[in-house]
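TICKET: design request
STATUS: open
ATTACHED STRUCTURE:
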């Protein structure tokens, strides 16, 4: 028996020709359990696109305020000179990208930039250092002070510093860190085509250290690095195996950088991006699904479609580490066009 579902806007329910009314939450809860294998994910991903977006929107509405799109700021606190060979990264010392290595910023510089981001509406401040992993000592102690400074402003604090030990994760937790970003980037199968200087299991080990310390995990991937659509679903399967699942999942579209091995990579297909956002929302009902790098190349219409499909977080500001990004003014115009609240400039 095929069930044809209709939306009843005035009652907030769905109805069908062959069964009783059921709520948005009932529909959404069908997806909370399961969805752990590529086959299960593909069955959802391959739905007709209108139906996929419809289902993702139902899950989104059941678990989130649809007008709440979190604004995050991202700052490179230590740029360039990274020894890793990530094929997408402008900060690798192995590639001639024109990015100059800079020392670690001061705590006061970071506090000022975080205060500015808060005044523009950011609720989360993310800090990235181009390290394979932090070394214990003055630099790591300085990062801990940065975390305390951001938390002292009433903001969520997130860092991405590379690989961590259990003890480093514990110290970050004790400093008040909200979340740790450590992306898996792609599927296990495709990973070695992009990075060879650290393994997939190295990344998973860091995520486990973060979770053992009681810090929320921010983990996602990058589209457009020569992977297949099945690789993208395999990444989601890896994320769904984490316990607990990530609290936020950044979805990046590759920003090709001259001098890197992926400089000539073709752009990501727009509808494939929407499908992945929708499938991510259905798989992780309670997570923040963050539109991250590559938004400067997206039309307003594509971004709105991603929000409809379940994305509910963005990075704003003219730069993401070293990649371009829409400015705060552009995003304010986009939010006004969508009829969503635009934060007014407040005093730091």
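STATUS: resolved
RESOLUTION: sequence designed for all positions
ATTACHED SEQUENCE:
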């Amino acid at each position: 028996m095929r069930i044809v579902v209709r939306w009843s806007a005035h009652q907030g329910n769905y109805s069908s020709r062959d069964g009783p009314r059921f709520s948005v939450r009932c529909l959404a809860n069908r997806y909370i359990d399961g969805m752990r294998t590529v086959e299960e994910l593909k069955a959802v991903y391959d739905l007709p696109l209108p139906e996929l977006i419809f289902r993702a929107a139902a899950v989104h509405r059941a678990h989130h305020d649809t007008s709440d799109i979190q604004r995050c700021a991202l700052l490179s606190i230590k740029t360039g000179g990274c020894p890793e060979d990530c094929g997408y990264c402008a900060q690798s010392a192995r590639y001639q990208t024109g990015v100059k290595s800079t020392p670690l910023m001061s705590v006061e510089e970071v506090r000022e930039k975080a205060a500015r981001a808060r005044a523009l509406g950011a609720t989360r401040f993310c800090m990235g250092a181009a390290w394979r992993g932090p070394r214990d000592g003055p630099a790591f102690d300085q990062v801990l002070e940065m975390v305390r400074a951001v938390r002292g402003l009433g903001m969520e604090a997130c860092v991405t510093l590379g690989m961590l030990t259990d003890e480093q994760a514990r110290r970050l937790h004790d400093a008040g860190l909200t979340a740790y970003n450590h992306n898996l980037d792609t599927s296990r199968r495709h990973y070695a085509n992009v990075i060879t200087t650290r393994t997939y299991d190295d990344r998973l080990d860091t995520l486990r250290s973060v979770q053992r310390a009681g810090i929320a995990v921010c983990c996602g991937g990058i589209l457009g690095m020569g992977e297949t659509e099945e690789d993208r679903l395999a990444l989601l399967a890896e994320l769904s195996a984490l316990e607990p699942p990530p609290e936020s999942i950044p979805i990046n579209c590759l920003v090709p950088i001259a001098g890197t091995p992926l400089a000539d990579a073709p752009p990501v297909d727009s509808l494939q991006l929407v499908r992945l956002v929708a499938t991510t929302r259905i798989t992780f009902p309670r997570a923040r699904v963050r539109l991250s790098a590559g938004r400067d190349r997206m039309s307003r219409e594509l971004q709105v479609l991603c929000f409809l499909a379940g994305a509910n977080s963005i990075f704003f500001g003219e730069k993401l580490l070293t990649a371009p990004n829409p400015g705060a003014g552009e995003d304010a115009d986009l939010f006004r066009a969508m009829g969503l609240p635009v934060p007014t400039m407040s005093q730091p």
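CLOSING REMARK: The CA atoms of residues 72 and 315 lie 5 Å apart. Residues 1-22 have pLDDT under 50 and may be disordered.
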